[in-house]
Every structure is written in structure tokens, then in C-alpha cells.
UniProtKB/TrEMBL annotation:
Name under which the protein is recorded: Methyltransferase domain-containing protein
Protein origin, superkingdom: Bacteria
Biological process according to GO: methylation
GO MF annotations in UniProt: methyltransferase activity
Transmembrane segments: none
Length: 276
């Protein structure tokens, strides 16, 4: 249901995420035992597009329980910092870092709102500012987000964004072939669905969430207006979960449409740099 932004949107979303942290920790979806044993959490296109992170500093905005953040540390980043507004998520991430033998100077986690990141993180500039999938839809003001993220990119560094394509929220859930919603909608989307993507049948209490749809052009424009140079915008024909009933899981673990039907972008990625 589309509606004007409710005044309690942040509190509602935080309560929802706080409640789901222990569910995610226990889920097969995140499979923390395998992650501790070395299983890769990053997607192959992210690894290729971000490139070698050896010796670099990396800030992960909206990091949840920190699997992606810690994966960059495993790949050689000299320092990673994860930020999330959920205290239980940050505490879980700190525990995972300790399990991996990563000290606070290698992997630190901060509990703060993403809009307050510039004041909350330990340093004021990072070689790489990263944000992973399922992050931007929780933010009402994409211009403010872009300004915040850009302000934390060091000279010669870059911002990297990987996200679900907003077109996917316009189409019907069953087939992904019929347009049902407005791509350019500006109102908030208020949902009350129980459970979580990591466990659809989980018994949950805090089920109200408030989200926003940000067209790709709006995101790119906001990043450019914040002073970064767009290096690329890539669209991907795969998703990380079965967004539509017609998607099929491939050998790499991605979900794609069958080969006999036309494809649409299901995800996108952006790299934007600050001149040295």
C-alpha cells in the first residue's frame, strides 16, 4: 500500500530488523556455520567489479550482520567498517569478526543511522564505500544518502552500489511479466507481511515496514550530483532470490528467467569515483 511517509518509519523499520536478527542468525539462508568455515558471501560480479581490495580501507553502509563486510576483510582489505542502525545486527557482526580472529583495527562495526554515517564512523574517508543489495529501498531521501556516501569516499577512491532493480517491484509476483505498479511512485510502501526472506514461516511480531522505490535514474543522478564520477552502470539479468514464481535457480545459485522468455534487469550495480 502506497502512502505518505509516516513519522515513525525509522522506528518501525528498526523494530522489524531487530526482531529478525536472531532468525537470520539461525537460518539456512545465511548459514553462519559455513560462513565461519570460509564460504563466500559476496556475489561474483561484485568481486569482479570492485576488484582487488588488498591493503585498502572499506566502509560498508547498512551492513546488517556483517557477512559481506567481513568477506571484504577476508579478501585482503586492510580495514573494514560496517554500519547498521540495528544494535542486535551490529553485535552479531562483532561476534562474527571475533570468531574469524579479526581484531577491531581490521573489522569494526558501528550502530548508527546511515544518514549519520559521516559523524559515526571512525574515519572520515575510505578507499571504497560499499553498499549491498536490499539497502536503498529502506531510505526515503536518496539525495541525502548519496551526499553522505560521497562525503566518505577518499580522493582516488570510489563508491560501489549493488542493488535489486526497481523494475522488479513494478511487475506481478507470479510471472514478472505484467506491469501492476508505478515505476515512478514517490510515496512510501507500507507492508505488514510476517516472516522474513530468510525464513518465510518465522513467527514474528514487528511486521510493519516502510520502504521506498528509487528509479535507477534517480540513484545515478543523486550520486553524480554529490560530486562523484560515474564509471559504469551495469544491469544484471539475475536475482539472488526467486522474486517471481517463473524464475529458475542456475548452477551459480542465481535466479533467472527460463531461456525461452524475454529477459529484464533484475539487479544493477554502479561504480562512481572521486578524482585523486
Amino acid at each position: 500500500m502506497y502512502a505518505p511517509t509516516p513519522s515513525d518509519w525509522r522506528d518501525a523499520n528498526r523494530a522489524r530488523w531487530d526482531e529478525r536478527v536472531p532468525i537470520h542468525v539461525a537460518s539456512d539462508f545465511y548459514d553462519l556455520a559455513s560462513f565461519r568455515d570460509g564460504k563466500e558471501a559476496l556475489r561474483d560480479f561484485e568481486i569482479d567489479e570492485v576488484g582487488d581490495v588488498t591493503g585498502r580501507s572499506l566502509l560498508h553502509l547498512q551492513c546488517h550482520i556483517g557477512l559481506d563486510t567481513l568477506s571484504w576483510a577476508r579478501r585482503g582489505a586492510a580495514q573494514v567498517v560496517g554500519l547498521d542502525f540495528s544494535e542486535p545486527a551490529v553485535e552479531t557482526a562483532r561476534g562474527l569478526a571475533a570468531d574469524l580472529g579479526l581484531t577491531a583495527d581490521r573489522a569494526a562495526f558501528v550502530a548508527a543511522d546511515v544518514y549519520d554515517a559521516a559523524e559515526a564512523v571512525p574515519d572520515r574517508a575510505y578507499d571504497i564505500v560499499y553498499t549491498g543489495t536490499g539497502a536503498l529501498n529502506w531510505l526515503p531521501d536518496i539525495q541525502r544518502w548519496a551526499e553522505t556516501a560521497a562525503s566518505l569516499v577518499a580522493p582516488g577512491g570510489f563508491l560501489y552500489v549493488a542493488e535489486f532493480h526497481p523494475l522488479t517491484d513494478v511487475l506481478d509476483d507470479e510471472t514478472g511479466s505484467r506491469v501492476l505498479h508505478d515505476y515512478f511512485a514517490r510515496d512510501a510502501w507500507v507492508d505488514t507481511s510476517p516472516g522474513t526472506y530468510a525464513d518465510l514461516d518465522a513467527d514474528t511480531v514487528h511486521n510493519r515496514s516502510v520502504e521506498w522505490q528509487h528509479p535507477v535514474g534517480e540513484v545515478v543522478t543523486a550520486i553524480a550530483a554529490a560530486g562523484l564520477r560515474i564509471e559504469f552502470l551495469h544491469e544484471h539479468d539475475a536475482s539472488l532470490f526467486p522474486r517471481y514464481g517463473s524464475l529458475r535457480r542456475d548452477e551459480q545459485g542465481y535466479y533467472r528467467f527460463p531461456t525461452d522468455r524475454a529477459r529484464i534487469p533484475l539487479m544493477y550495480s554502479i561504480k562512481a569515483s572521486r578524482p585523486g
